Structures are given as C-alpha cells and as structure tokens.
Hints:
alpha/beta
Amino acid sequence: MSIDTQQRIIDAANTLNFPLPAPKEHSKITFLVVDDLLNPHYYNILQGMNSIACKYNIPVSMILLWDDVDAFCSMLIANQVHAVYFATFMHRINESHINLLRSNGICVHFSWDNFTIDFDSLMNQAIRYLADLGHKRISYLSGLSINDTSNTRYHSYLKAMEENHLPLDRELIIDGIFPYFTDAKSGYWALKTFLDKKIDFTAIISLNDLLAIGAMNALKESGLSIPQDV
C-alpha cells in the first residue's frame, strides 16, 4: 500500500470519526537518516546525537534512506521506531511521508529546520577570492539538479557571479544527474564528462567536499595540475 493510500485511509477515518486501532507502543529506537553512508559529515551529527541520547538510555543508529521512500516509511512504522532525524536532501521527503510517520506516533525532525547558513555571503566570498586571483571562467559543480528550488548553493553561485561582474556562461554549470548523488564518485564522473566537452575554464566551485575530491581526481587523471591549471 502506498504512502498516499495509507494517508487517505487515515484522513477518511478521522472525517467519519471511525475509531482507528490504538497505536502500538513504540520502541526507543531513533534513526539518523542519511543519503550517503560514506559522507564523514554525517558521523559528526551521529556523534552529537549519541552524546545526548546516551543520557536517556536511547539507542541511536544511522541508516541509509531507501530509493523507495514509501517502503522506507512503512518499514519505520512496522518496526515501531520512536523518532527519525532526516539529514537528507529536502527533495527526497514530501509532506505525505511526514504526515504518515507523525500520524503513526513517530517523531520527525529535519536537519534543514535546525540551522540556517548564509550561502549568499559564503558563495560571494568564494567567487570574490577567485576573481581577485584573476579567474573569470569559474565553473560550478552542482551535484543536485539546478532546477531544484532547494539547491540554494547553485542560486547563490549565480547571484555571486553577477555581483562580482563576472560573465555567466551556462556551459560552465555542471548539472547534477538523477538520482543526484553528491559523493566523490559522482564528482569524478561529472568532471570527466565536463572535460570531454573541451570547455574553457580556470576554476571550479563544488557543492561539497566529496564532489570536489572526485573532481580533483578526474582533473589529475586528465593531466591537469591543481592549482596551477585549475
């Protein structure tokens, strides 16, 4: 049964005042849900969560979000999970997933609700630094789809290029490829494809460190030195 179907059943029962089965008693299990188990950034979050959870005798585990998010949510419900903390990309979780989990007594929180980063200011500093070194052809390695409204760093890149009076060539933008992984392997293949196009550029700004590491490997493999050539 899909997430939408389950939610419609719950909504209909509430509208008709139909008694639903009492929710099962939940375990204390809490999951940190991530997009990539190889990203060391998530281990810092896990360590912080565990430092608090151990005071309350609550186990915390890190788990990879499945491609089938509907099935993933059903698994959480079936295993009576107490709480989940999504440190995933926003576009992978929709309102129906959130409502279903919460209607089944699961506490749901998101990393993007807990802090705000001024990407406009940070990207402007990065572009200005490169511009001061004489760079004008600055490429952007997105990882995510540039059409995704939650891809804030891409929009900050566009704004920073304009504010620093640098020409914006759409050929310099390396769009993400579905299903939009942002690991080193994705960065490597994205740069390999980009280099094959023989587009003139002198610098690259990447969405994250893992993409950058993959891109650096592709550059070195192509005989380009860092930072002399790029």
